[in-house]
Amino acid sequence: MNARPAATVVVVPRERFSEAAASLASIVRHTAPPDQLVYVDGASPAPVRRAIAAAAARHGFRVLRRRHYLSPNEARNLGLAAVDTPYVVFVDNDLHVRPGWLGALVQCAEQTGAWLVGPLYHQGRPGAERIHMAGGVARIEERDGRRFLRESHHLSAGALEDGIDLRRSPTELIEFHCLLARTQALRDLGGLDPRLLNTPEHVDLCLSANAAGGGIQLEPAAKVTYVGPGPLRLYDLPYFLLRWSDDWTRRSLAHFGRKWRLADDDPFLREHAAWCANYRRSVSHRWRHVLRRGLGARAAQPVEGWLERAVTAWAASAPTVHTPEG
């Protein structure tokens, strides 16, 4: 008798497509049957789409394709609807996993009863990783009758794993780079909030699970690596700019603030908006450099702004996206 699958891995777009094939190869290599895989593909460019289709034909996993760009929570909810296993594991399409990762996450959930489990997150190219985070803090604190979010990461970006003694432990915060959830618990919570278009959807889910008494665990025996953005390909740019657009950030943070009744001047809301904008500019600097080299710094500035707004508006409004090949 075949064992019943415990988990379904749902891969979703994070912010680009150029790491997707390598990430998928890592996930397939280290995810053994009977556990299942669903790949949610939101308008990936033709070379990536062909690679995903070829891997699906070779390994027998399901692809849910949409011909427009998807927000991460929209993609996760599409994948969740296709899950019929006790656990769902959301994985971004720029993540690399290590042997034993999935079994460790499931075992932690089984032994602790946690609703959510996160691995030890690394960052960087495989072989040169540093710790990205090892759980964290996410809670609402009241001061003078006003509500503020306290949010922080443990061992945030830069620590080396050698010499650090990490053990399974309760935590308040894990991230969607890789996140296991009890399928029924997630459905009982109403799924993932689609009005959080780009941020801070992981904080929202963790707050919701904690409020419902579900429990969250860090399982450092499961190890994954978030590669990070790297240089963007031309076909990455429209989705990346939309994913981190000021419009999506403003709408997401406004909804998050209302939902959790945060003070209008909550530092998290202000600082996170600034982080999203700075991140978008820092990662997309290569095409800005090309413009400045050709037009000069002063002349390029208004062109940069116009081009970014035009590409983002096109990416947001196109009912069917035809992404460039380059």
What this model shows, in words?
The protein has 326 residues and is α/β, with parallel strands linked by helices. The protein folds into two domains: 7-226, Spore Coat Polysaccharide Biosynthesis Protein SpsA, Chain A (Alpha-Beta Complex), CATH 3.90.550; 234-317, no CATH class. The chain has eleven helices and twelve strands. The strands form two sheets. Strands 1, 2, 3, 4, 5, 6, 7, 10, 11 and 12 form a ten-stranded mixed β-sheet that branches. The chain has a two-stranded antiparallel ribbon with strand order 8-9. Helix 1 links the parallel strand 1 and strand 2. Helix 1 (20-29) runs parallel beside helix 2, helix 8 (246-259) packs antiparallel against helix 9 and helix 10 crosses helix 11 (297-317). It is globular and about 60 Å long. It starts with 6 loop residues before the first strand and ends in a 9-residue tail after the last helix. The relative contact order is 0.15.
